[in-house]
Amino acid sequence: NAGVTQTPKFQVLKTGQSMTLQCAQDMNHEYMSWYRQDPGMGLRLIHYSVGAGITDQGEVPNGYNVSRSTTEDFPLRLLSAAPSQTSVYFCASSSDYYNEQFFGPGTRLTVL
Amino acid sequence: KNEVEQSPQNLTAQEGEFITINCSYSVGISALHWLQQHPGGGIVSLFMLSSGKKKHGRLIATINIQEKHSSLHITASHPRDSAVYICAVRSNTGNQFYFGTGTSLTVIP
Asked: Given this model, what pLDDT does residue A45 score?
């Protein structure tokens, strides 16, 4: 099993550009989530999904969209990148909300 | 507002020392997680607990639900234990996780 995979590992964007961060898991997990990690702050939840077709907002959802068309994939879309979205993004999955989370390797995003 | 507070923020220890990292939280929880983040950035789950104590090798995690406090202990610390240790709590209302800012541990040979 590959576990949780994320692409790309690094990305540089200009302000106003859009892009999609990819996340996939091969563990048949229902619960998937996106976090951002900024210096001096804990991980913060952006969006999460409790199953295919179901998504909801976390603590910091503004500027991001998600969709969950399959159990395996949970892409995160930046609609119009801003410098404040410079961060490291982690995707995580678990069999359900109540179980251990498995994290992807992260995507380091810089918005100029 | 910080729902999860960790102490200390930074910790340097000599190899072999006993280490304690503390976590306090202010929300009602259904579980508490301890995570390890290595310098390369990857995050690994160490423990998930909702009561009492758990032990994996040299790592021990305890939780006191009444006091809203958890501790992570490392016995006979080793340089490979050098990492950031993160406490996270799963809220018992809604699908929300709250994370501490982490404790950066350096173990010197």
From this structure: 92
